[in-house]
Amino acid sequence: MGYRTNGLDGIFGPATQNAVREYQRTRGLAVDGIVGCNTWRSLQEEVVGAGATSTTIN
């Protein structure tokens, strides 16, 4: 989605938290860096069907 997390490493580190904050800011969500219900719902709505199948993301 264009947000920098420094790769997939299984760690919710500072780069991931900053990416979440930026996502929240651009979507008009509460900016807290936590992937709560509203952020998770927004992410799901944005990526469903974005990959080769309805459950994958490219």
End-to-end distance, in Å? Answer: 9 Å
Strand segment tally: 0
Provide the low-confidence segments as ranges. none
Query: Which structural class should the secondary elements be placed in?
Result: mainly alpha
**Largest sheet composition:** none
- Tell me the helix content: 40-55%
Strand content: under 5%
Tertiary shape:
globular
Mean pLDDT: 86
Order of helices and strands: HH
Total DSSP helices: 2
Textual characterization of the structure:
The chain has 2 helices and no strands. The chain has 58 residues and is mainly α. The longest helix is centred in the middle third of the chain and has 14 residues. It is globular, with a radius of gyration of 12 Å. The model has no long low-confidence stretch (mean pLDDT 86).
In short:
The chain is mainly alpha-helical. It has 2 helices and no strands.
Q: Which short descriptors sum up this protein?
A:
mainly alpha, 58 residues, 2 helices, globular
What's the arrangement of secondary structure elements?
Elements: H1 14-27, H2 37-47
